[in-house]
Amino acid sequence: TTAGTPNSSKPRMAIANLVIIPQRIVTLMRTLPPDAVLASTAKSAQRRNTGYLTHAECKAILDAYITANNLVDPLDPIMVAPDGPICDVLYRPTKKQLKENYQMRTEYPSRVSRPILFELWISKMDAAYALVKLPMNEIVSMKRGIPPKITIEVEKRQNKKHITRIRGLEAYHVHAATFAQDVSKRFACAASVETTAAKGRAALMKGCSEITVQGHLVEELQALLTGDEGKMLSCGHGGVKDGNYGVPRGKHVFEVVTRKGAMAKNRKR
């Protein structure tokens, strides 16, 4: 099948949350091994030497630093005595915090448990993510920041009719025109594709489109894109049968917005 075409046997995609250690932290903690920071031993060849780390790899780097600098409490191995660089990285106020509260004072802890230390450590990293094709675990793309969302909006029109708009498909390698044509056939409704946002609508990113579909099809579109059997059963529409564009499942992927009095559908039991 071609990219962006539905197929019940098509590999599903998933999102892997990754992190990147900021250069300022690498500079502060001078003894961090450069190879580890670059993910040189990553299992995935596509991540090797890129700096994109899994949470486990990132925690292992801090753990190795703690051990190498003899920061473990010999009487209680779960406790750590953070040194100056760790305290600066994890506890020093940011410029923004100091600007908001110039009298802010920070007392560095003398002992911290590993779980708390690791949690703080991850929170200081730059967010990143990978789009992974399952079950091969093949990385399709890796980017900084948080995963993009597919936005689905439903709006009530006159005579109790609804329209549903969807944008953001391109981030998950779904071809908008192909999808619109498929939706039109499956649900016997009109579907149009716009590459320029209509007046009053938020601007579209370069190379992205917005699809407008007649009808209240929020769950149907999610079921069709993900192949989620639970969603298919919930929406109860035969048009979603054998649908699967390989889009990852979950609320972290889809953002559903209701406009102008649109309500959730009453499903038949």
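Second entry:
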Amino acid sequence: ARQQLLLVAIGVSAAILALHEVSLPLYLRADPAGMATGIEYLGEGPSGGAAMGTALLACGLLADALPRHAAASGLVAAAASSALGLRAAAAGRRAAQPGVTSVGLVASQGGLGALLGLAVPMLAKSALAQAQGALRGSSVDEWAAVVE
């Protein structure tokens, strides 16, 4: 069940990343008046990628040091940050506040990086532990068959 939850978290991260790369730029540039004024948002392009990469690296390094319950809490916080960041970006765009939109984009990208940085190592650890348990179980069964 834990592995399935982590796979869902990774799938949601992929969906949010696709939203950031395809739909969100179209939404931000949909207003012809905004295009004419040349508004640039901080969380777009390289700065958003830097926020995501930094969060991914930091959380990926912390994933091994954190206890399982703390990492699970981090997953929830990262997902909330990403979702609320998208909400802030949409609200800032509707209110014509580029600062709010930029903070929302950076928060969403950072939350996405943190989510992936925690979920992927946790999934790998869980799969490795399951595989090691299966190997131990099979070697015990083989040893019991040899002894009998």
